[in-house]
Amino acid sequence: MGYILIADDDVAIAELIADSLTDEGYTTRIVTDGASALHTIQGDLEQIDLILLDIMLPHKDGLQICREVRSIIACPIVFVSAKSSNQNRILGLDIGADDYITKPFIVAELVARVNAHLRREKRRLKSDTDLMTLGDLVIDTESGTVKKDGVLIDLSTREFQVFAYLVDNMGKVLSREQIFENVWGNNFGDLNSVTIHIKNIRRKLDPDNQLIRTVWGIGYRLIKGGAHCP
Prior knowledge:
Largest sheet: 5 strands, parallel
Number of strands: 13
Radius of gyration: 22 Å
CATH architecture of the largest domain: 3-Layer(aba) Sandwich
Structural class: alpha/beta
Order of helices and strands: EHEHEHEHEHEEEEHEHHEEE
Number of helices: 8
């Protein structure tokens, strides 16, 4: 699960925003200077869902940060600034920000804009990831199907769900308990169901055991090699 980065040197405002977003179910992180903001963004590209960025930050201002990171991070960037002139708004949007909110702001409006940006981002990511290729496999998460070398593979619904869960967690070692809980949706039942489904998936998709690796004593891992989104 990702988080929202709040970069603002006014701790009271940053905490007000964080508390309001936490009430909405989001995870947040606060940094109070530009150098820390830049370091955090560069080191955590895959985990940040949205950035709320003040312009007037110590050490490095928000405009500089936006210019430096816009080409390496795709998540929404929203300026939250006391600079309210049209010139600053236009500049902020021109250098890659997705929105510009002026201080003082209505907290409910800021939360609503964050919600709207993250809904759009979720739709964008869904459209980008409906299809994934993994070696000679094409996985269609929308239709729940897998093709191998262009041929549709006969997977049961549960087999596809298990395989899709492995794909969603590619590179991670997953225990049988994790797979069972997340695919079957409860902690009750026979964990051997996971073993049987993995065996069937391997037989149909991975007879050479090149994709799904057994990590003895722990569980299974889908290797990253060969995967990309078209």
